[in-house]
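Title: Prediction job returns without error message
Component: structure pipeline
Severity: low
Priority: P3
Assignee: unassigned

Description:
Job completed but the reporter wants confirmation the result is attached to the right record. Sequence as submitted:
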Amino acid sequence: MRAFQQPTQQALLPTLVSRDVLPRALALNSAGSQLANIVGPAIAGFAYAAGAIVVYGACMGMSVFSITMFSAIRVKSQRSGREPLTLQSLFAGINFIWHRKEVLGAISLDLFAVLFGGSTVLLPIFAREVLHAASWGLGLLRAAPAVGALLMSLYLAQNPIQRRVGRTMFGAVALYGLATLIFAFSQSLFVSIGALMLSGAFDMVSVVVRQTLIQMQTPNDMRGRVSAVNSIFIGASNQLGEFESGMTAGRFGAVPSVLMGGTATILIVALWIRLFPTLARADEVSGGVTARPGA
């Protein structure tokens, strides 16, 4: 169900707000998600004292409320009719991304950066063997990236990035890799928490710029399919990234695994700047595309 829900929700937002406030809307949307990631588990912990049925019942109730609110949204369709299902229409999203190098570069940059730069799956090992922290320390480590992302998303909601978006995105990913290296070298719990907060903040900059750029560069009738492909990339990078981190940690150790991941992220940024120079030179996100390739 989430495979249908996420692309639809991503494609819906640009139809509800004007183009000039879309970056702020995306930042606020991300802020809400990060706040839920922080507050939700804490509330669930208290709610579980009343029994599991209370927790799952609350989830069902909030889901029904969310569906009810979504059903009240009315969006005027800009399409004259439903496109017939063909092999060409089935792969239209992939074809569109392949012919829009800025979109391809932004999506693939996130794919490989998360694939190699992720370290959260190894936090229990770092808490126990490197930082010698108790369970509360592990809790702080897990919450740190979300806290950093939340603070940055609130900042971006008030101060949207308007110019030099390409350089900003590449710089944010490079700093994400640098924060990962700091975390790998750290022997202090609080330095590690700070590094993880920075990684979450820089990742949020990349997320907001990438989502805004993709939405601005995609025509209305292609947003759902492009968002679906983007969701596949995001899901693949998260899952494969955790597998890669665990595999390299088992072979070389947790610290070398994170060191290699942070270094690989910075190298990927340098390589992507050469492979996608137009993306690196992108100055603003307001110049949307109005037609498909070949239309």
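Comment from assignee: result matches the submitted record. The CA atoms of residues 116 and 244 lie 7 Å apart.
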